[in-house]
Amino acid sequence: MQKMFRVPFLLLALLSCLLLTPALSQADDSTGQPAAEQPVKVNAVTALPALQKRLDQLKQQVSSAKTDKKFTGLTDAAQALAEDADKLSAALAPDLAQVQAQLDVLGPAPAPGTLTETPQVISQRNKLNNSKTLLTTQIEQTKAIAVGARNLSSQISGLRRDALKTQIALNTGSILGGNFWAPLFNPNDDDAARFDDFGSQVSDAWKQAWSPEWRVGSGIYLLLALALGIFGRHVLDKPMNWILPRWLPQGRFRRSFLACFTTLSTTLTLGFSVQLLGYIFTRLPDTSAWVNEFAQQLGELTYFSALIAGLGIALLSNNHPSWRLPGIADPLAKTLASFPVLLATFIFLFGIIEQLNNLVGASVSATLFGNGLAALLVALNCLIAPVRVNRMRRKMKADGEQTEARSTLAGLIHLVISITAVVIMLALLIGYIPLARFVTFELLWIGLVLSCLYLLIHFVVDFFESLFAPGTHSGKIIKGTLSVNDRHLSLAATLFSAIGKTALLLFAAVALLNGTFGSTTPLELLAKIVDIWGGKGLEGVNIIPAHAVNAVLCLVVGWYILRSARRWLDNDFLPKTMMDRGMRASLVTLFTNVGYVLIILLTLSSLGIEWNKLAWIVSALSVGIGFGLQEIVKNFISGLILLTERPVKVGDLISISGVEGDIRRINVRATEIQLSDKSTVIVPNSQLISQNVRNATMGNAQGVATIALTFPLDIDPEQVRSLLLDAYNAHEQILDTPAASVSFKELGPTGIILSVTGYVNSPRIVSGTRSDLLYEILKMLRDAGISLSQTQTMVIERPGSGRNAQAEES
């Protein structure tokens, strides 16, 4: 039976071979390859490597692209490459179909042990199978190139969106043009498809959340989220209003604590509320990656926006006007009440749009639309708020109401916000949307950081003043436990307040230099601070324009912090210690010099100068020292010696090279000495080290008031001695110990010389005391009828006048 079927099959195979042999022989080329391979050799063998080379070149160019024009060209090239790959794949498809048809005619190879085919048929089948495999592989490679080109185009779009955040000088078209509003009225098909895909994923997650097995939990989380978001802050305010007057001591700490609590309660309640809403979807097993990522980003955006709203509510404090931190009048605070909430709402809504654009990979036009609209609304909010405040202030003046006393800093902040809003509007109108976005987010970030700094500084200072106040419960416990007096408590409050303010200023400086819109957390800021002080991250930094801006900010902020710290040391902290004035001045000078060095080093690091590249500076300094900087360096080192060894200090009365006066200031290079006539002599520090210096006040030296008088030979020395001692002892500046004394200095033909000596507290009062004593001694001598030695006379005899010549007093 099987043989009967084999005979027709064999005849059919032979007939097919006879029919196909002429056609195949005619289609063979000089190399003897079949016709099925001819299209592959012409269309794919050379075109496929060329397409792959184009894809590799595009990838290399993308890694080095920086400008928007370059990204645009690469996007067009990637799309053209995908189209060419699709064309090649479409051209290879008929060849594959033809080969498959020829194989279908030949049929499958017979099983082993059955009818044997001719060698020509076997060879022809092998060639067709090889051609089919080659064509299939080439089509798959072509499709892979097309998919890679499209993926590269999507990556380029993402890189272009990210580059728009840094290319602030790129003109993308005015917001008044039709291209800006095209994503709203005529959206891109790709954008519509991506957003529809995301919407379908959200819809599927929503349906799954309300399926029977998840319905109860979703309902509970939804109710908790709504209750927490709507009523959470108001519920927390009531017990806090009851706790504050009863648990916290009276003082400013209550208002700063309330402001911080209001900010935290607003931020946490709204943030937890949105996180609960997101948890409805993220807890589901089949939720897509897009929905999970969007829920996470939505929670972070909510915390940021809620923090802005909470700061505005806390600083305005319309519910507790008497506890308001800034000095803002009630009508003005009520006028501004809606602006922080509106600003937070704008940031939240358009932050969602930007996150969605980044998530789904929307086009650049859609991204620019979201950025431009967000910047526009923020700028309008920042423009309208000052206008309404000024209008309310004029109305209050017209009605005779008292407005707050405006400080220079408040006026400067008002002016900066207005100018920044105008810059944003101008950038939007002339087409610089990336610039408007950059300025907007920088304004928001700087305003957020400074507002938090203002609030936290008040909180820290008020906390430590309340903690160490002698009248509070905590102050009494510390005072009794450590056995300290009120002065030590005041000193501790000042010290800890300064440490807290320094830490906050450091955090704020790092946040301003490294923070971006919602991307810097407290832990990241702490890591940056550790890296800065530990030297990590300062090596290998290149000098780029952005680093120059950071260097300027570092210099300005560092100078302000150093100036504030020096003022605090000089006026607040050191006067409460037991140090003398000279020691305090030396410490302040040392602190200032070290601070300047640190600021310079940090500024160089922010500029991108590596520490190991500063060797040339040291070399240049060594050459300069050898030629002409010896004196400067010598005076600098001498100044450090004066500040550390302190042979002389500020306030000392010294005498050097005929110059006598008080040291007013010891600078890095020279020392200022103030003379008695209030003039100043500048003495190089090296002279105070290398020359003999008389320090009249070193070691609490006492002054000596000595007066030497000449009396006639006929006086009673004991009487005069008693009179001089009485005059000295009666003077209030003369010390009892050591006691005043009178010494017999000289006895001669001209008279008796007596010297009286007394001690005073300071050499500075010797001159005035000696003058007072001379007045008093002269008066007492006249009352006692005692005269000083008379002036000598000279007798001149004229010729012929004899002995009775006229005497002339010389």
From TrEMBL:
Q: Where is the Mechanosensitive ion channel transmembrane helices 2/3 domain?
A: 589-630
Which InterPro entries has this protein been placed in? DUF3772, LSM_dom_sf, MS_channel_1st, MS_channel_C, MscS-like_channel, MscS_beta-dom_sf, MscS_channel_2nd, MscS_channel_C_sf
Query: What keywords would UniProt list here?
Result: Cell membrane, Coiled coil, Membrane, Signal, Transmembrane, Transmembrane helix
What positions belong to coiled-coil segments?
41-68
User: Any keyword Signal?
Assistant: yes
Q: Which PANTHER family match?
A: MINICONDUCTANCE MECHANOSENSITIVE CHANNEL MSCM, POTASSIUM CHANNEL RELATED
Protein name, per record = Mechanosensitive ion channel protein
Species of origin reads Rahnella sikkimica
Q: Could you read off the lineage of the organism from its UniProt record? A: Bacteria, Pseudomonadati, Pseudomonadota, Gammaproteobacteria, Enterobacterales
